[in-house]
Amino acid sequence: MKKLALMTALVAGAFAATPAMADPMANMTKAGCMACHAKDKKLVGPSFQEIAAKYKGQGKEATLFEKVRKGGAGSFGPVPMAPNSADKINDADLKAAIDFILKS
User: Fold this and answer.
1) What is the mean pLDDT of the chain?
2) Among 24, 87, 95, 104, which is most buried by a count of CB atoms within 10 Å?
């Protein structure tokens, strides 16, 4: 019984010490992405669903990462996307956001 209580306490402590999973939508909102993009409708830029449909399953995560960092135009029309530095969204949060978008 003591072993079970000890194991339960250790497992609970491990979960308590683990940082909460990042929320990609909150990070994208904080970074300003939501000013031009939405999950399911075109705003200034394409929706996340449009992006996912175009790139899903193609292994384009690195390409999308670079496109967000450097900006660009032409993939979804003539409106350019401004570059977004690590000051706006750090690398880990950007990677999580790209994974989230491709799962939309």
Assistant:
1) 85
2) 24
